[in-house]
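Feature request, filed as a ticket because there's no other form

It would be nice if the structure record came with a short human-readable summary line next to the tokens. Right now we just get the raw output. Example of a typical job, pasted below so the devs can see what we mean:
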Amino acid sequence: MATEITASSYIQHHLTNLTYGQLPAGYQRGDGSVLSESLWTFAGSGQEAADMGFWALNVDSMAISILLGAVFYWMFRSVAKKATSGVPTGMQNVVETIIEFVQSNVSSMFPYKNPMVAPMALTILVWVFFMNLMDLVAIDLIPEIAKIVGVSVFGADPHHVFFKIVPSTDPNITLGMATCIFILILFYSVREKGIGGFMGELCLHPFSSKNIALQAFFVPINFVLEFVNLIAKPVSLGLRLFGNMYAGEMIFILIALMFSGGFLMGIFGGGLQLVWAMFHILIISLQAFIFMVLTIVYMSMAYDTGEDH
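Raw output as currently delivered:
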């Protein structure tokens, strides 16, 4: 018997990842069955995905991210191999423009020597842009293809086949990237300033005093304030990208609901979707740029010993 698709179930379906993980023994699944032993499987609902815990893997986000990273690598490597010394044209012109844009930003915001920063900034800008760009793909296209494959090849229940194609709407992806950048910040902070200098940043500012007893009183207060400021860097970096892209995806989903409201609503929804897509191009580009810029700024702060002030 066919199950009626409501607006709520449509939205929930589009916001659920294709998740693979372990369900514990004794777990009662959505169909009422109880597992006699732990089972590694794909989640049949958002609740099952949540119950799988920390070690569950969002297969769709990971697969699309790796695929887009490979596209980025292939595209830039192909251009580099075919580059000519004359006036650049076509794709070479695009790639060189992007590289020059990144280089100018790195030069203006990172006045130190580190051959890794510029390539990292380029990777972040293009890779995040590609992830965000997936938001412009027709909202039902890839999920419907995934459903056809899941049903015809794997015999899955069509209502339990999920597939999200915008990796940057998955906080695991955005916070994962932000965490990697945070680790680099810690590494270079300790390398450039030493353990003492790094701990001094956390414990001797913003409140300081020449009085030793008063300074000792300020140390725990400074540490709490500066530690929160330190942790806020990767958290804000990851959540800013996730929040903006998630909101954009939600608007696309809500507009898509209009197509089920009749011919006139479908026409209106199509026009609205086109307008939002044109505006969303700006958001997609801006969020990739902001992620890159903040990464460069944070790396520069890791190198800053305060000797120039």
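Something like this underneath would help us a lot:
Residues 9 and 229 are 39 Å apart (CA to CA).
The chain has a mean pLDDT of 91.
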